[in-house]
Fold:
Amino acid sequence: MSSNELRAGIIGLGQMGSPVAGRLLQQGVPLTAYDIDAAPVQRIVEKGASPAESPADVAKNSDVLITVLPNGPHVESVALGDDGILSSGNKNLMWLEMSTIDPQVTQGLVTRCDEVDIQMLDTAIGGLTVDAEEGRLLFMVGGTPENFENACTFLSHLGRCVHCGPTGAGVTMKLINNQLAGVNLVATIEALLMGRKAGLKFSDMQQVLSSTAANNAHLHRSVPDRIIKRNFEDGFSMNLMVKDAGLALDLAQRLGAPQTIGALVQQLRMRALNNGWGDKDTTIIAKVLEELAEADLAFEE
Structure:
């Protein structure tokens, strides 16, 4: 059976779930959708999806099931119980769990899935909503090599895959990635603010920094597209970044892996939350650093 002939289901039509669902429909994949909020379900139904009454209903009508939810308790709530995924009785189901959650929750759910013959892989998402819309996501996958190959065939609709290891390795890689990306963002903003106060232009700093070991994606996307333009709406919310970083710090503590810089950056994020910026894009942390520097990055070239 080709990946286009597989029936897909999705639970969670939030910021990333909706563009993932839209991309699958554009690729001609039959899709069943569920969310506790009726509005995004209606929007995706208007694009060609079929609505479901429960997580179990989605699982019964799918060959491949995707979950994109805020946190571990949300994933457990749709998996367990009388109307949960595991109650569906679908022994041919492949569940691609794309939420950013604690790897221990992932491993516990995989054990439960094995008991009912459901294949579950942690399939953490890397990328932005625009990457989902254009099929350019990166998936960090944890699971057996055989299940990984099966998942990649389907995920070619959405992007590319990296096999990170056994169950839990995918979401672990995602937490590490987000932790480093968050630290890089703060370090980049601090450096640019120093240059700003010294009278340097962003275009000159970007040109030089991009040509050295200081180069990073924030110089090319986050800073020019969001921070300089004061575009802090939508995007990846500070609330979610604080949640992800908290999971990373908890994991690091269990592993005995120091996260000195990561912990300091998390304190700066908490200042953003205290300022009421939790729903803003994570680049809103620039305003925290600007207040400390008594300067801003709203360059006028």
